[in-house]
Each structure stands twice: as C-alpha cells, then as structure tokens.
Amino acid sequence: MIDFKDQFLLDPKITFLNFGSFGACPKPVFEKYQQLQLQLEREPVRFIVKDGMELLANSRKQLASFVGCHSDNIVYVTNPSYAINTIAKSFPFKPGDEILSTNLEYGALDRTWNYYAKKAGAEYVQQALSLPISSKEQVLADFWKGYSKNTKAIFISQITSATGLILPVKEIVDEAKKRGLITIVDGAHVPGHIDLNIEELGADIYTGACHKWMMAPKGASFLYVNKENQSWVDPAIISWGYESDNPSHSQFLDYHQTNGTRDFSAFLTIPACIDFMEENNWKEVAKDCRKMVIDNAQRFCDLMDAEALSPINEEFLGQLFSIPVSTADPMGLHDLLFEKYKIEIPVPKENDRCYVRYSIQGFNDQKDLDRLAEALVDIRKTSNLLA
After folding, report:
1. Residue 25's pLDDT band (boundaries 50, 70, 90)?
2. Helices 52-67 and 270-279 sit at what angle, rounded to 10 degrees?
C-alpha cells in the first residue's frame, strides 16, 4: 500500500483514525480551495455573480457524472443535515402519516425528522434492526416490520454512522417503490467510499457529503431530488432564485442554488477532488483500505471480547469498522485516547451500545491500527474506562 501521508495536511504527531467524521483534504485540493478563495476576494462581485456561477455549473456537472445522475437534479449544500432539513421541512405530511426509518440513523437527522413530524402530527418510526446482523435478508425482514398503512416514505442510511455498516439500500428502495413510498437516502459516507450510481439505485431523494471520502474542504455536500419530487421541495432560504428575474431552465436549481451571499469555494473544488482520485488510482487505494479494515476487524473484536456487528466482509463493511466496547464513559474514553495516546478516533454511543470506530484512508497503515490495539490493551489494564 502506497504511503500517502505526505499528501495530507494532518498533524503527523496524531494517529488519525477518524476520517469518517469530517474527512481531510489532500494538499492539491486544499491549494485549489485557497486559490478559489483568493479569486473571490480579489473581485468578489464578478466571482459571485458570474465567474463563480460558471465554475459552479461545471463543478455540479462533474459531481453529477461522478455520482451517477443528471446535473439538473443535484444541487450543492453545506452538509447532509442541511439537505435533510430542506426535505423534512418541505415534506407534505398529513396528521397520522409515518416516515419509516431505522434505529441506526445519524442522531442529528433523527432530531430533524422528529421535529418536523411532530409539528405536522405525523410520526417518525425508528424500526429496530437486530444486531449483530446475520444476513441481508435479516435486515430487510427487520426493516419492513415497521411498515404500516400510514407509511408514506422511507428514510435510511446507505452507510450508517455510529455502526459503520453498509445496509442493503437498493433492495429497500426497490421494495419501497412497489409499495408506492417516497424513498429518501442518507448517503453521507458513500461518495468516494463505495460505488454510487444514484439513478441506478432509484432513490427519489439522496444526500451525500463530498467533504468526507471525496476529500473536499469542509462544507461541501449535495442534495439530489428526482424530477417527480422537485415541485414540493421548498428552498431552505427564500432568496433571488424564487420567482427569479432571470430564471434558468430549472426552477429546482434557481430555488436551491441561489440563496444569498456565501463563500461557495468548497463546492468548486470537486473537479480537483475527482482529478486527485483519478491520478492516484483511488479505487485501488480504497480497495487496499477495505482489506486493512477487514483483516483487522476480528482481532479488535477478540481484544474487546465482543462480537462483530455483521459478517466481516465487503457486503457490510467498507473503510469503517465499529468495535463494540463496554464503557460507561464514552467521552472520557475518547479524550484519553487522544490526550494520552495521541489517537484521534470517535467513541460513539447509539441506543444502549458504545463503539470505537476506526476509519482507514490512504494515509493510514498497519502501524496505526497496532497503536490503537496497544492503547486499548493498556487502557483495560490501567483504567476503569473499559470493562
């Protein structure tokens, strides 16, 4: 595996095993980002009104090609939380309606759906998925137990956050279509991580982060809405795009792309991200990363006297692995790992379980995971943070 450490700006004194949270920029992408910001500051009016808009259109087209959809159906947003807030705020709820989801979703988006559903007299249903997962069929059977005659849409992560699991979203979307449901997918961890073709997936609505596995600067994500559903999706901010004086060919783009003064330079780096991945054969890099994740997974489960959350294979695992741990103080464990052992790694809590979730990216090597293993062994011996 090639060492890409010198291609990133990360602190070399820190063992960085938390790429999944906010990603990290390669140097060429960050340099492009700074060039764009300088261009903005040197002539802000022309950049915001003309030059930047042309760059934005090109960037959106390249992103659309990368994720497999038409460029008129995708807009940039700062993060998936923004995207799902846009959808949930606009969703045509009626009293008694239900949105079917799982108990493994990202906490911020659980809050989003609960807020808007309650406001409308509807219900956000978090159907429990049994852990550990034994098979794809088990996930499907568990999920559809939550369906009722009141279900109007499904909301599900393609890759879960705390547990780092790849869910059988294609099969869920296909079944949801048969039942006449709107399909909304949180793909925050997907672009640049596992293969993605939104049109082949068939989801009505999809959001993904570019600042995670695509390695863009922070605050670069997207919202996809197919044409059949664009009419009810209101912009989060009403601005010049609404009833535009100079409307484009797409009301969806006008409404959601033009929403006030902002530095949208991060959105414009996507072509540089794609170039970086192509120049460095990132599909092979990702393949090596997945192998490292899988090769080490059982070792960590044995170390923590835990059972893996799924079969240890590429059907359920990408470049993330969540090790079940027994701790009463996940934040204390996180802080100790960082402060004493110089390891940046999340310790998420979800439902009644806690995990240590490692991410593997091109700059990681086996020594990084060995340091984590040594640290966990030492913590079990010297503190009461791990049972």
Report:
1. very high
2. 50
How would you label 52-83 residue by residue, b for 16+ Cβ within 10 Å and e otherwise? Answer: beebbeebbbbbbebbebebbbbbbbbbbbbb
Question: Tokens representing 158?
Answer: 């393609």
In this predicted structure, the answer to whether residue 93 has a pLDDT above a threshold of 70 is yes
Domains and CATH numbers, the chain: 5-27+281-382 (3.90.1150.10), 61-265 (3.40.640.10)
What are the backbone angles phi and psi of residue 50, rounded to the nearest 5°? -130, -70
Taking only the tens place, the pLDDT of each residue in 294-316 is 999 999 999 999 999 999 999 99
Distance separating alpha carbons of residues 163 and 321, to the nearest angstrom: 7
Please tell me whether residue 297 adopts helix, strand or coil conformation: helix
Q: What is the pTM of this model?
A: 0.97
Q: What is the pLDDT of residue 358?
A: 98
Q: What is the pLDDT of residue 3?
A: 75
DSSP 3-state of 43:
coil
pLDDT at site 111: 98
pLDDT at 86: 98
Quickly list H helices, 181-261.
198-201, 251-257
Measured distance CA(283)–CA(311) in Å, rounded: 23
Token pair 């293969």 is found at 195
Query: DSSP assignment of 49-85, as one string?
Result: IIIHHHHHHHHHHHHHHHHTS-GGGEEEES-HHHHHH
Is residue 228 scored above 90 in pLDDT? yes
Task: Supply φ then ψ for residue 201, to 5 degrees.
Answer: -65, -40
CA distance 342 to 250: 49
Residue type, 12: P
Burial of 352 (0-12, 13-18, 19+ CB in 10 A): exposed
Q: What angle do CA 152, 228, 158 make, to 5 degrees?
A: 60
* Predicted pLDDT of residue 1: 58
